[in-house]
Amino acid sequence: MPLIDPFNRTIDYLRVSITDRCNFRCVYCMPEEGFPVSPKEELLSVNELIRLVRIGVESGITKVRLTGGEPLVRKDLVEIVRGVAALPEIRDLSLTTNGYILDELAAPLAKAGLTRINISLDTLKPERFKALARRGDLARVLSGIKAAQDAGLHPIKINCVAMKGMNDDEAADFAAWTIQEEIHFRFIEVMPIRWNLDETIGFDPLSAHQGTGLLQLKQSSNGSMLSDLEMRRMFISAEELKQKIEAVHGPMETAEIRTNGPARTYRIPGAKGTVGFISQISSDLCANCNRLRLTADGFLRPCLMSDGEIDLRTTLRNGGSDQDLADLFKHVVEHKPERHYLADGQKVVGRGMSQIGG
Predict the structure, then answer these.
(1) 1.10.10.10, 3.40.50.720, 3.30.930.10, 3.20.20.70: which CATH number matches 3-356?
(2) What is the pTM for the complete model shown?
(3) Digit-coded pLDDT (tens) for 214-231
(4) CA gap 235, 231 in Å, rounded
């Protein structure tokens, strides 16, 4: 039986965070000092992760994406990929990474059964890269992209969080990349996610906007990352970005690629790759949302922007049956909210992106 939520959406996509640790400190995601991370004993083991994914698959999940934090920092990543890829019902197994150590792991991951890969990259300028990511270097990320191409992890999608005044001037440069290479570039509207409770006084995370019946936990505060207000000021719409690209490259034509997801996709005439826009703020994409999120410490969430989540780890480690865990999957689906309210000023006060999974 498929998983159907209260709004008649079929839920068949599970995003699985395998770690809350990251080797970058991107300004819109983490403070310079990082977030507190879960003790290793709280993180799901390989066998626990694979069991929960299997139960999700038996409940109706057909598409899995591995995320973090940064999933490539987990030493047993290849083993996790091999175990998930062995589940016969999985039609698509992908991974999102910052690409920094992908040059070492692209070939082993492809051999283990990874289908394709998304790489986060917010600038093509080395000095700007250092300012935005605050770790690593651009050259090694580009080397990781080349390694993914050589390993046959296609289609390769490059994700850029677009921020006015920070990297929106590179829109046409990124689009130019797609002319000569089969790279599928996607601009993502910046989402105001921040753990600052001082900015959220009076906001009820379990209001009708969020749904009810789920647990919430792990609120905190942080320092040197962009605030909710700063991210809202840096917002630039997908339509504005499209206009910037077409001002340089001329009108783009509509295009489709395999596993297109929520992106509206275009192609510069004659280009090998495509340019996509994920406009989760200016054009609400929630009506077609088909995903759940499993955190690295074993909590299942119905929505990135909802502060509700259910503890699977305790049931898992206390001898719960597959049916017990499947019932928790169904419970979360039954409480999936209709949509987020970011455009209306909703503020998220629970976990940060690195702890939920990007």
Answers:
(1) 3.20.20.70
(2) 0.85
(3) 433 333 334 477 777 888
(4) 6
